[in-house]
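pls ignore typos typing on phone
adenosine-5'-triphosphate + seq
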Amino acid sequence: MKKITPAKVDDKKMEKIVALCKRRGFVYSSSEIYGGLAAVYDFGPYGVELANNIKAAWWRAVVQLREDVVGLDAAIFMNPKVWQASGHVDGFSDPLTECKKCHNRLRADHALEEIGIRADEKMDQATIDDLFQTNKNKIKCPACGASDFTSIKKFNLLVQSNLGNFTGDWTKEPVYLRGETCQGIYVNYKNVLDSSRVRIPFGIAQIGKAFRNEITARQFVFRTREFEQMEMQYFTHPSQELVEYEKLRAARWQYYLDLGLKEENLRWHKHENLVFYAKAAYDIEYNYPFGFSELEGVHARGNYDLSVHAKGSGQDLSYVDPLTQEKFIPHIIESSVGVGRTFLAILSEAYTEKEIKGETRLVLNLPYKLAPVKIAVFPLLKNKSDLVTKAQEIYDELKLEYNCEFDDNGNIGKRYSRQDEIGTPYCLTVDFDSLENNDVTIRERGDLRGGSELPRVKISELKKFFTDKF
Ligand code: ATP
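k done
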């Protein structure tokens, strides 16, 4: 039995991040006025900007800056045979146990990990049940505290629908909501090959929704039943699979550093229990407030995916090398990460509290390129039309290049702290001196100096100033 160090939990920080997300319009519970829907969330006005910026940064790094990767946007619904061939209908499951006292459901592998015993969802039912039965007296139900659980059952995570079935008895032949985006890539591999200029090795990337009937979903946007994935599948010659895999691992690590995550908050987790077809599997874990947990999977999958779809569809999915005429089924390496998990990692990293004169001030130190609002423009006073007009003119000019916010509401200190809480890098204020001198004060995020101490920049030089900064 493998022992691991249980995660260090900072519940307070997690609670504060959740509260900030609600208060400042980053994330709301889905259909909240009806009591919400477990493990489903909506992104609010600043959340959607942050999520879009995360997706844009990923797309830029993974697709646009690489000559060997192209994009795709496959539909959420697919022929159900896809999910049979891929093995999801029979095998896409997590180990479920139920508290006999309060009927709360738990993921057995997670419950074991929480007491320091290495387990994962890929273990077969008997192995994980054995491990669970041996240790279950140490595991407490998070809802009622009892240590009395049922034996482990494997629970299939695919979400089903009645799409296109009007018989009323659709459960026998459900159409699935995709459990992962990459199947859309595998089944389009031949289309992409035949209709674009890619040659092996090459990658296909996509961003899109995925759905899973997660057993427990207690960690905010880290684990949701509807979520978005950013996946890149890279098709290689069999002999090059592990060579390309190491390159991909290095690229993905560097990507997170470039995104602004600190290296000490990242680590590799090597899968010890590989599925039979996998050549290698590592996850990149991030140090969330509830401890190190999977942010992204980087896996070498052999030729499993294309082989099962060749068999399932009866189509030849092999590749013929145009130079050597060698024919082979490409091997696939993948990088797969959730938007929600990146979002939470970015927020955890950025969340900063400052104690000032007994007061706690919150600053969200987001990387500039991810900040929902780049520049906030304020007239010092709302009821002075000269100030408002000038500020509005500046806002109208800057918004053509940056996502800006105009705010004339309330006292200036409150406006600054509101922008600090949503991570806006710069606030500029039009005051009475601006009317004389055609300049504005520039306040950098988190700066606590008073207005008279802030630097001033000429309005005519603002564009250059921000080009240098961003
Ligand atoms: P876990 O072990 O945490 O359940 P997984 O190994 O099943 O995750 P994968 O199937 O490898 O996850 O999915 C790839 C990526 O998609 C994950 O690394 C994660 O970033 C994201 N992801 C998976 N499931 C969820 C979910 N329920 N909510 C949010 N993101 C998810």
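Residues 373-469 form a domain with the Rossmann fold fold (CATH 3.40.50.800). The radius of gyration is 26 Å. more later
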